[in-house]
Amino acid sequence: MPKINKTRTRNVAPDNGKDLTRLRIALTAFFALDGFVFAGWVVRIPAIKEQTGASASTLGLALLGVSAGAVITMTLTGRLCRRFGNHPVTVVCAVILSLSVALPPLAHSPVALGAVLLVFGSAYGGINVAFNSAAVDLVAALRRPIMPSFHAAFSLGGMIGAGLGGLVAGSLSLTRHLLGLTCVGLLVTAVAGRVLLREEAPAAPYRPHHDATPPATDRPQHDGTPPAPDGPHHGGDRVPRRVGSRTRVLVLVFGVIALCTAYGEGALADWGALHLEQDLEAHPGVAAAGYSCFALTMTIGRLSGTALLERLGRTRILVVGGATAAAGMLLGSLAPSAWAALLGFAVTGLGLANIFPVAIERAGALAGPGGVAAASTLGYGGMLLGPPAIGFMADWFSLPTALTSVAALAAVAAVIGFTTRRVAVA
């Protein structure tokens, strides 16, 4: 019998349900913290623009530092997670994220701002891969589709961060506000990080490929039951899986699904309010509510995502969600009145809510942290691609026409989800 190396990893499943519950709470805290810190920074971008004296174009270039740092780091974090573990990498990235959000007030030029945002974006991208990989492990161990609940925490954290940021923007200086975010981030990391560092990454119980036992829930097997883990467990060690070319293709497919849905998030965040105010002559207050309606329904959809996944399965969530988002965005972009468009935005949020979490979880179940990194990179790439693509199409055609591309890509995600319903598990 070959000798097993027990010094590299100890992916031992926690002893009981209480340990898994503690891990779930800790991971949920990190997801919420990520949304809270990022939204808190975003609401102070106008103050940063004034401080640096940047024009709209130069500010846009500086803000690309966040995107560039995130994408570069996402491609590397999968390797770090495989070497050091998802939990330690999550904690380290949370510390860097919390510290780096306090750096923008030190920048007094667009170039300096771009440099500090590169650091901030690197931490943001790293923690997204690390805690999504840790969440994939926990989903497999619990054998319940709880991934949407983590992303609901991110959405809730973002709503709280944006709301508090808007309230304190008039009374707190930029420096004090972002330092406050640093303090909150370090405090949450100190509390939740102790749990992650103390507990080993959970390992799902091994089930041979020929096992015909039905899943823990009544979903069809092809609707996304977590596949068997990496291989047989010997004394708590996990035998690394070999990722074949077919698996890599499937990971990229789920990354494309994530891209299609994240494209819509980025487009609505940047262009939704302008469409309502410019094309539908809505009051600025009503226009500002456009993205809020979208974000609120997305949060509600994610909070109910676990129950929906257990009832409908992953394939139906991808197909129905994509079709719903496509219909909602057609209404939102082509509606003759602002109130109809707001309804369309709300329906779009419900449709898109659980597609991104499911796509990331499927990629991670197939290929571990590397799969999460690849799918996340494509997904967040879609969020970055959306706003400029909408801008170019708006110049060529019109903004309402350009926004229909969100509906088109949501429909593409639904079609891909349906066509991969069987091969994903195979």
What report would you give on this structure?
The protein is built from 14 helices and two strands; from the N terminus they run αααααααββααααααα. A hairpin with a 2-residue loop joins strand 1 (about 235) and strand 2. The protein is an all-alpha fold.
What's the structural blueprint in terms of helices and strands?
Layout: H1 17-42, H2 45-52, H3 56-84, H4 86-100, H5 110-142, H6 147-168, H7 174-198, E1 233-234, E2 237-238, H8 245-279, H9 284-303, H10 305-312, H11 314-334, H12 338-352, H13 355-396, H14 399-419
Antiparallel strand pairs: 1-2
Helix pairs in contact: 1-5, 1-6, 1-7, 3-4, 3-5, 3-13, 4-5, 4-7, 5-13, 6-9, 8-9, 8-12, 8-13, 8-14, 9-12, 10-11, 11-12, 11-14, 13-14
Which features does this protein show?
426 residues, mainly alpha, 14 helices, globular, disordered N terminus
Concise account of the structure shown:
75% of the residues lie in helices and 1% in strands.
* Averaged pLDDT: 82
CA-CA gap between termini? 29 Å
Unreliable segments (pLDDT under 50, ≥5 consecutive)? 1-13, 204-240
Radius of gyration: 21 Å
Helix residue percentage: over 70%
